[in-house]
Amino acid sequence: MHSTERRSFLKNSFVLASGALLGVPAHGQEKRSSGKAEPGQPKPADKKQIIRTLGRTGLRMPVVSMGVMNSGNPALVRAALEAGMTHFDTAHGYQKGRNEEMLGNVFKDYPRDAFTIATKVQSESGDSPAAVLDWLSKVDVSLKRLQMDSVDILYLHSVGSRERALAPAMLEALQKAKESGRTRFVGLSTHSNEPEVLDAAVESGVYDVVLTAVNFKQDHYPSVKAAIARAAKAGVGIVAMKTMAGGYYDRAKTLPINCKAALKFIVQDPHVTTAIPGFTTFDQLAENNSVNYDITLTEEERDSLAAGSLEGGLYCQQCSHCVSGCKNNVPIPSYMRAYMYTYGYRNLGLAHAVLSEIGTKQDPCLDCASCTAECVKGFPVRDRIADVRRVSEIPEEMLA
Ligand code: SF4
Ligand code: SF4
Question: What is the pLDDT of residue 37?
Fold first, then answer.
């Protein structure tokens, strides 16, 4: 899509999102319910919380939930609960397991039906019987950290292809996790090739939920949105992540994305049940939670998204266009994701984890006289790789 067409498409999308789509329930599932007003909490007493149903799971939750990945603060989780959020998303690998431990210590003081907990476990052992056992043993570690017998949603983490989504060993592992009571529902998370992975999730008949990257900065947003609609119509619950596309347009953090507008834009799609922004402060909690009561985009918000959609920014499309031009077959999209985590989210732990997955501390560009990898967004990939590689040198104990 050319930039003028894209700008026009987005502008129209933002207009539609604030008008026709607003109030159109996903298969009649959206309801508004009263929130309990708490003194000092960001819960507007005179407005109704917007609640949706997560596909065939039947789980009901506000349109904005808490992505806990960037926060180690139990007080913030309690405040989110008291403000009316009910769904909390973590992962086996976040903060080297401390994120799950922190949530376990918070949730042990609440009735089990007061919250919905989702965690994600990655498979690193291919598609074999050993991979099933390895993955399930990691799930058991997560449950122990969370101090729970069962989670509500268990995701196969970071699935980037149809082949991976349909890998027989992983489908078996997910079904075993469900049958054994380790989880009520299963899903997958994806932040690349989202349309292909969403369609594969439907095809499998196994996944109850898909946690997908989706935001206003995606060049392929129309195809992600269409795949979300297909999956939702098939009964798969849709949870949105990376709605804020890195949070900033620049590395120096002088150009912030209008995160509230970006969040509203995504949850205005009635096929998206909820989004999981990774907030870390009480002010951000208040701002995000306000969207649970009002998803209307103002004219100013629409304009800021339409203009921002054309900025290069920190958000890598994960399109892999650059890879074919790289003589060393460097996993550039992973480096660029680590770069966004470093300079957008300021989450060095997550960046470190991505770089560890890549698996080498050597400079992959060392023997290259000039960079031949072309980025569709004009990112200086060689410079960014050299810059973000430094994060892999930080000792793990300093990332706590
Ligand atoms: S300099 Fe560019 S082409 Fe060369 S290895 Fe690095 S990313 Fe690939
Ligand atoms: S670096 Fe550029 S070309 Fe490569 S995946 Fe990211 S956006 Fe696409």
Answer: 37
